[in-house]
Design brief:
The protein has a single domain, classed as Luciferase-like domain (TIM Barrel). Helix 8 packs across helix 9. It has an eight-stranded parallel barrel, surrounded by nine helices. With 342 residues, it is an alpha/beta fold. 43% of the residues lie in helices and 15% in strands. The chain starts with 9 loop residues before the first strand and ends in an 8-residue tail after the last helix. The mean pLDDT is 92. It contains eleven helices and nine strands.
Length: 342
C-alpha cells in the first residue's frame, strides 16, 4: 500500500453553506462565493457543497444551483457536490443537470453521491414521494448515471443531453461501512464523512482498500476524509471560535437545530451532551498553525488518506476565511513545493 504524507495529500473544502444567526441565505451564498475565491487563491483542490433540507442552520438545499454559482465565480477550482443525495432525485435529471454544469465549466465539475436523505424522514418523504424507498436503489441508480454519462448510450431510447460522453468523476460518499463496500465493488473514489460520523472511519477505509476492484474510472483506491478544521492565530482563539461548532452539534443531538451562533466563553451543556458532541467531533483539528500541522500530520500518517477535505463552521466570515488561510500556510510548510497538491 502506498504511504501518504502531507507532501502527497490534496486538500479541499466542504461548504455546508451555514446560515449564521442574524443573517439570511443571501448572505450565506455571498460568503460561500467569497470563500471559494479565497481558497482558490490559497491553492485548494476542490470546493464541494452539501445537500440538506428543512434545516434552519444550512442553506444548501439545492447544491446543483450553488455549484453553478461557485463555478461561475472562480476559474481553476474544481467544484462539486458533497454530495447530491441520489435517492432524492431521478438519475436522468442528475445526469442532465451535471452534464449542463460540466458543459459550462469543462474539467471542473465533480459528482459526489450519497444515499442518506439529508434531512428528517418526514421531509424525505415530501421530497421523494413514491420513491420513498429509493435508498435501496442507490447502487443501481449510480450504474444508471454511469450509463447516461457514457458515449455508448448514444443509441439508447433515453439519453442525457447534455451529459452523454462527458468526463464527470463520480465519488461515493458515506458515513458507515456499507458505503465502503459499495465504493470498493464499483471501483469508485470514496469520501467519508468523518466530520460528524468518526466512529467507523478506520474500519470503512480498511474495508474499501481490501475490497477495491479496479475499474475504468479508477485504477487504485482513492480516499477523501472530511474533517472539521478551526484554525486561528492562537490555540485559545481557535478553541473559542470552535464553540460555535459545538453549539451547532449540540442542537443536532438535542433535536433543536438553529442558525450558527456566535462563540461563547463557556458552553452550557451537561456531561452526557458534552460527551456526545465531542464524540461526533472526534476528527476536529482546532488550534494555531503549529497545532494544526502536528495534528494533521498524525492523522494522515494514521489514515493514509489521499485527500483531506476541511469544513470550517465559524460564525464570523472573515475568521472562517482566515482559518482556511492558516490551514493552507500550515500545509505549505509541510510540503516541499510552493503550492498545495492539486
Amino acid at each position: 500500500m502506498k504511504t501518504s504524507s502531507p507532501a502527497t495529500v490534496a486538500f479541499s473544502v466542504l461548504d455546508l453553506a451555514p446560515i449564521v444567526a442574524g443573517a439570511t441565505p443571501t448572505d450565506t451564498f455571498r460568503h460561500s462565493l467569497d470563500l471559494a475565491q479565497h481558497v482558490e487563491q490559497f491553492g485548494y483542490t476542490r470546493f464541494w457543497l452539501s445537500e440538506h433540507h428543512n434545516m434552519a442552520s444550512v442553506a444548501s438545499s439545492a447544491p446543483v444551483v450553488l455549484i453553478g454559482y461557485i463555478a461561475g465565480g472562480t476559474t481553476t477550482l474544481r467544484v462539486g457536490s458533497g454530495g447530491i443525495m441520489l435517492p432524492n432525485h431521478a438519475p436522468l435529471v442528475v445526469a442532465e443537470q451535471l452534464g449542463t454544469l460540466a458543459s459550462l465549466y469543462p474539467g471542473r465539475i465533480d459528482l459526489g453521491l450519497g444515499r442518506a436523505p439529508g434531512s428528517d424522514q418526514l421531509t424525505a418523504q415530501a421530497i421523494r414521494g413514491s420513491r420513498f424507498g429509493g435508498a435501496q436503489d442507490f447502487p443501481r441508480d449510480i450504474q444508471q448515471l454511469q450509463t447516461y454519462f457514457s458515449a455508448a448510450n448514444s443509441g439508447a431510447a433515453v439519453r442525457a443531453i447534455p451529459g452523454e460522453g462527458l468526463d464527470i468523476p463520480i465519488y461515493v460518499l458515506g458515513s458507515s461501512t456499507d458505503s465502503a463496500y459499495l465504493a470498493a465493488a464499483m471501483g469508485l473514489p470514496y469520501a467519508f464523512a468523518s466530520h460528524f460520523a468518526p466512529g467507523q472511519l478506520l474500519a470503512a477505509l480498511d474495508i474499501y482498500r481490501r475490497n477495491f476492484r479496479p475499474s475504468a474510472a479508477l485504477a487504485q483506491p482513492y480516499v477523501i476524509a472530511c474533517v472539521n478544521v478551526i484554525a486561528a492565530d492562537t490555540d485559545a482563539e481557535a478553541q473559542w471560535l470552535a464553540t460555535s461548532l459545538q453549539q451547532f452539534m449540540l442542537g443536532v443531538i438535542t433535536g433543536r437545530p438553529a442558525p450558527l451562533l456566535p462563540p461563547v466563553e463557556t458552553m452550557q451543556w451537561g456531561p452526557a451532551q458534552q460527551q456526545a458532541v465531542m464524540q461526533m467531533l472526534a476528527y476536529s483539528f482546532i488550534g494555531s498553525k503549529a497545532t494544526i500541522q502536528q495534528d494533521l500530520q498524525e492523522f494522515i500518517a494514521q489514515t493514509q488518506v489521499d485527500e483531506v477535505m476541511a469544513v470550517s463552521n465559524i460564525f464570523n466570515h472573515e475568521a472562517r476565511v482566515h482559518s482556511y488561510q492558516v490551514l493552507a500556510d500550515a500545509l505549505r510548510e509541510l510540503q516541499p513545493t510552493a503550492e498545495l497538491v492539486r
